[in-house]
Design goal:
Chain lengths: ~220, ~280
C-alpha cells in the first residue's frame, strides 16, 4: 500500500469535514480556531461576532431573492449580527423548534441562523416584518414581564387603581364585589381586574425563585 | 367521523371542559402547531378565555408587546369594530386587525386571535354580546383555513355558546382523577341545551382525551386513576362520547413548551401520538 504524504492526509481529513459540515462552516470554524489561543480567550469573547465571522448579513447577501425579501432579510440579518434580533441561542433554538426543526445540537447563533434561512426565505414580507418587529425578545415567556404588561394595559383601559378608588364611595370592604362576582351565575370569573393592581414590588419578587418558599413550606 | 376537508371551509373544533385545569389551552396550542408543522394545514387558533393562556402559549414573550401595542383581539371581534386609535374614529373590523401571525410557511399560516384579560368585561356589561358574532366573523373571513381550534374558558357563559355556534366538533380533555367527571354532566347539559335551541346546527363530540397531568407513581396512576377511568368510561358511554386511545403522558415538559422553553420536552414530545389519532379521527 502506497504511503500517504502529509498533504494528502490533510486533504483527506478536510474532505471528510467538508462532506459532513459544509465548506462555509469549516471556514468559519478555522477562522475561530485561528484566534483561539488561551491567553487571549477572554479578550476575544468580548469582540463582536463580525471579528470572528463574516456575519449572517454576508450570508443573506449571497442568496438570490426578490428585492423586497432582500431588504427585509438584510434588516433581520443586521439586527441578528448586532444582537438586537434573537439575542440568545435559546431564541434561535425556540424559533427552530417551533418550526419542528432540529436544534438540539446547536452550538452557536450563526449556525442556528443557517438553519433558520430555509424557513425565513419561505415567509411572506409581512411575516418577516412581524418577525423583525418582535424578534428582540429573549428567552421563554417571563411571568413578571407579562404581569407588568397586563397591569399597564389595565391602567390604560380602566384607569389606575388609585384613580378608580377615588371615584368610589367608601364602603365596607366585606361588601365590595369584584365585577366578576357581579356577573350572572356561571359567568367567567377567572380573571378579576384586581389582578392588575398587584404592586410592582410584589411581582418582581416572584422571579427566579425569589418569592414563594415552596421548600420551606414543605418542611413546615 | 371522517369529514371531507375543503368542501365547505375549515373544520372547526372547540376544546372545552366545564372544569378548569384539564389542559385545554396546552392541547389547543400543541394541536395548532402540530396541524401546521406536521399535517401541513392552514390553521387559525382562537383564544376565547380571558385568562389568555393560549395567547401566551403561542406568542410567548411577544404577548407583552401585543398588550403594550394594543393589538386587536377577540375583544374587538365581539365588539364588532376596531376602536379609534387617535384619529379616524372607529374602524371596520378586519381579519388582519385581530390576528397575530405565529408561524408561516409558503402560503400557509398558523394565525391566532388572541385574548385579553378585559375580555371578561363583556360578561359584566349590561348589554351582552351576540353569541353568533364569532361564527359570523369566521364565516366571512376564514373560509380558506383548513382548521380552526377554539380554546374555551372553563365556565359556561355567552362565550361557550359563541364557541358552539362556530364549531363542528367538540374536543373534551379530562384528567383521570377524583373530580374528573364533574364537568361532564354540565357539558352534556350545555350541549343538549344548545342543540335544542339550534336545531339546524350539527355539532358533535369528536372525543375525550385523557390528560395524565399528574405524576403516575410508576404504576400508571394506581387505583385512583383506575377508579377515575371507570367513572369517565361510564359517563362517556352514557353520552355516546368516543375516548381517544392515545393518552397524554404526565410530563413537566408541557408547561415548559407552553412558555417557549424548549430545553427539555420530556414525554411531552410524545404528544404527537394523540395529535395524530385526533386528526385521523377527524379525517384531516
Amino acid at each position: 500500500m502506497a504511503k500517504l504524504n502529509r498533504d494528502e492526509i490533510l486533504r483527506g481529513l478536510l474532505q471528510t469535514l467538508v462532506d459532513g459540515w459544509g465548506k462555509g462552516a469549516i471556514l468559519e470554524a478555522l477562522e475561530a480556531l485561528d484566534t483561539a489561543t488561551p491567553g487571549d480567550k477572554h479578550r476575544r469573547d468580548k469582540h463582536s461576532v463580525e471579528d470572528r465571522f463574516r456575519g449572517v448579513e454576508a450570508l443573506v447577501a449571497e442568496m438570490e431573492m426578490s428585492p423586497e425579501h432582500r431588504r427585509l432579510m438584510t434588516d433581520l440579518a443586521r439586527r441578528f449580527d448586532d444582537g438586537r434580533a434573537f439575542p440568545r441561542i435559546g431564541d434561535v433554538r425556540g424559533f427552530l423548534l417551533s418550526h419542528q426543526q432540529n436544534a438540539t445540537d446547536l452550538k452557536g447563533r450563526t449556525q442556528g441562523f443557517r438553519r433558520m434561512l430555509p424557513i425565513l426565505t419561505r415567509m411572506s414580507p409581512k411575516g418577516l416584518e412581524r418577525l423583525i418587529a418582535r424578534s428582540h425578545h429573549s428567552g421563554p415567556a417571563d411571568l413578571g414581564e407579562i404581569s407588568d404588561a397586563i397591569r399597564g394595559a389595565g391602567e390604560d383601559l380602566r384607569g389606575k387603581p388609585q384613580a378608580r378608588a377615588e371615584t368610589v364611595e367608601p364602603v365596607d370592604t366585606q361588601e365590595v364585589n369584584t365585577p366578576a362576582e357581579n356577573a350572572e351565575p356561571n359567568a367567567n370569573s377567572s380573571v378579576a381586574p384586581e389582578q392588575g393592581a398587584v404592586p410592582q414590588s410584589n411581582r418582581t419578587k416572584r422571579r427566579r425563585g425569589q418569592g414563594y418558599d415552596i421548600k420551606g413550606a414543605k418542611r413546615s | 367521523m371522517a369529514k371531507a376537508v375543503g368542501k365547505s371551509g375549515p373544520i372547526t373544533v372547540c376544546v372545552i371542559n366545564l372544569k378548569g385545569g384539564v389542559g385545554k389551552s396546552t392541547i389547543t396550542a400543541l394541536l395548532s402547531r402540530y396541524a401546521f408543522n406536521t399535517r401541513g394545514k392552514d390553521v387559525l387558533a382562537i383564544d376565547l378565555d380571558p385568562q389568555a393562556n393560549l395567547s401566551q402559549g403561542l406568542m410567548h414573550q411577544t404577548y407583552s408587546t401585543f398588550l403594550s401595542q394594543k393589538g386587536g383581539s377577540i375583544v374587538e371581534v365581539f365588539a364588532d369594530y376596531m376602536p379609534p386609535q387617535g384619529g379616524g374614529g372607529p374602524q371596520p373590523l378586519t381579519a388582519e386587525a385581530v390576528t397575530e401571525l405565529i408561524l408561516e410557511k409558503d402560503e400557509r399560516r398558523l394565525d391566532l386571535i388572541p385574548s385579553r384579560f378585559d375580555f371578561s368585561d363583556a360578561l359584566t356589561n349590561a348589554v351582552r354580546p351576540d353569541p353568533r358574532i364569532l361564527a359570523k366573523f369566521l364565516s366571512k373571513n376564514f373560509k380558506s383555513k383548513d382548521l380552526i381550534l377554539i380554546d374555551c374558558s372553563p365556565t359556561e357563559s355567552v362565550f361557550t355558546t359563541a364557541a358552539y355556534h362556530a364549531s363542528d366538533y367538540v374536543l373534551i380533555p379530562v384528567k383521570p382523577e377524583f373530580f374528573a367527571t364533574i364537568g361532564f354532566p354540565l357539558l352534556a347539559e350545555s350541549l343538549a341545551n344548545f342543540r335544542r335551541n339550534n336545531k339546524g346546527h350539527a355539532i358533535d363530540v369528536a372525543g375525550v382525551v385523557i390528560n395524565n397531568a399528574f405524576y403516575d407513581g410508576g404504576n400508571d396512576g394506581g387505583p385512583e386513576k383506575g377508579r377515575a377511568m371507570r367513572a369517565i368510561t361510564q359517563e362517556c358511554a352514557n353520552n355516546g362520547w368516543h375516548i381517544f386511545s392515545k393518552q397524554m403522558y404526565h410530563s413537566r415538559g408541557y408547561p415548559k413548551l407552553m412558555r417557549g422553553d424548549y430545553s427539555y420536552p420530556g414525554d411531552a414530545a410524545l404528544f404527537w401520538t394523540f395529535a395524530s389519532e385526533f386528526f385521523d379521527h377527524l379525517g384531516l
